[in-house]
Amino acid sequence: MRGAPLIAAASTPVRPAPARIRRRVLTCAFVALISAGCASAPDRSASAPSPAKARNGVLASASGKTLYTFDKDSAGSGKSACSGRCALDWPPMYAAPGAKGGGDWSVIIRDDGKPQWAWRGRPLHFWHKDLKPGDRLGDGMNGIWHVAKP
Q1: Can you tell me the distance from the alpha carbon of 71 to that of 77, in angstroms, rounded to the nearest whole number?
Q2: Distance between CA 5 and CA 8 in Å, rounded?
């Protein structure tokens, strides 16, 4: 109809869309929201390796042994100042040959040619007197050894 009003008069009731159409619209909106959320989520399958986990506020190996950092190690230098007798008391957290770091994790090559894990550029070590998971007997040793914190 030409010239018909585009806005319905107040006396004309607005009829709701059939329930089937409303359900379809809501379902499409829900699927779109979920798809957008999944597309923006980080890809966990390609995340960096994690040779240790945070446990009770410190980094610990898969077996639960506490990890330590050494103040004489310069973060990001790619070297550990702990070798010889030091490495006997403070064994390095060795990495598998060919291991790759990512994120906060990196691999340094020790003077003996073996790879060692580093957290935020700091080589990681165990304390030989920590006998069971959760022990933290090396924390503060000589004022230069500290538990590694996430």
Answers
A1: 13
A2: 7
Greater pLDDT, 125 or 35 = 125
In Å, the largest CA–CA distance within the chain is 98
What pTM did the predictor assign?
0.68
- DSSP letter for 15, please: P
Give strand pairing partners of 55: 58
* pLDDT tens readout for residues 74-93: 999 999 999 999 999 999 99
Instruction: Let me know: does 116 contact 82? Beta carbons within 8 Å.
Output: no
Q: Can you tell me the distance from the alpha carbon of 61 to that of 50, in angstroms, rounded to the nearest whole number?
A: 10
Report the candidate in 135, 124, 141 with the shortest Cα–Cα distance to residue 82: 124
Residue 105, number of CB atoms within 10 A of its CB = 20
